[in-house]
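Ligand: NAP. Inputs:
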Amino acid sequence: MKEKKVIWISGASTGIGKASALKFIENEWQVAASARNLDNLKVLKKEAEDKYGFGNIDIYICDTRDKNEVEKTVVKIEKKFGHIDIAMLNAGTASPYSDEFNLDYYNHVVTTNILGNLNCINSVHKRFKNRKKGHIAIVSSMTGYRGLPTASAYTLTKAALINLSESLFFDLKKFGVKVSVINPGFIKTPLTDKNTFPMPFLKTKEYAAKKIYDGLMKNKFEIIFPLQWTIIMKILRLLPYNLYFYLVSKYTGL
Ligand SMILES: NC(=O)c1ccc[n+]([C@@H]2O[C@H](COP(=O)([O-])OP(=O)(O)OC[C@H]3O[C@@H](n4cnc5c(N)ncnc54)[C@H](OP(=O)(O)O)[C@@H]3O)[C@@H](O)[C@H]2O)c1
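Predicted complex:
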């Protein structure tokens, strides 16, 4: 019998992470799902077992901001499943906008979105290098393409993750380790449910999960969706500053 592939998804208790967990199980992968909220993880496990039977998912409490907890989680996943084929580093957060410069917001978002992911990479990259095999998929956002109004804490972390993914692509290639960056547009999840502004081209988490699954199966470096936002952001990314500032101010009124 063919050995099943294994994906570890951080931040799998809700939203894109949860939908991706179910998508991979549907496609006969084994899923190690981690997050901080055990109740939500249990709901995911039950949903997966009800739909796809037993033995395809295990859940782990893991705060990615804690380096030791991440390492222990990876040890547990390897003990259970033998190895990890894909580490989908999806745990992330955002903070509300404030006209005041709020250092606590920045600390919170930077610690979760950047340092949390570095903790995960720290634990998987050495194992992947030793096996000369493995795939690190970092969930960033197309907001990381350029600085956007009212989102400085969030976009700075996502820009950092895009650059990090590009650098790791080069550095890990020679060890047989693949790297991808996942750049979604607006997806309806608990994270975006808090937004009070309009979110054009909003898509479901199931849509995102399918795009992510298909992109990872094709070993794409950048997995970006939906198409409408991709076109807009790719053009905005190329514009000189004066034109970029003019257009974004005009359309956002900010
Ligand atoms: N929704 C969008 O429009 C959109 C667009 C672009 C990119 N993204 C990115 O997609 C990823 C998933 O977001 P989402 O929209 O699905 O939001 P979500 O439903 O709020 O999911 C965030 C996940 O991250 C986990 N998490 C947060 N802090 C954590 C920590 N310190 N340690 C471990 N897990 C943590 C949360 O679980 P616990 O609270 O249980 O730990 C939750 O499972 C994020 O990186 C986000 O930036 C989202």
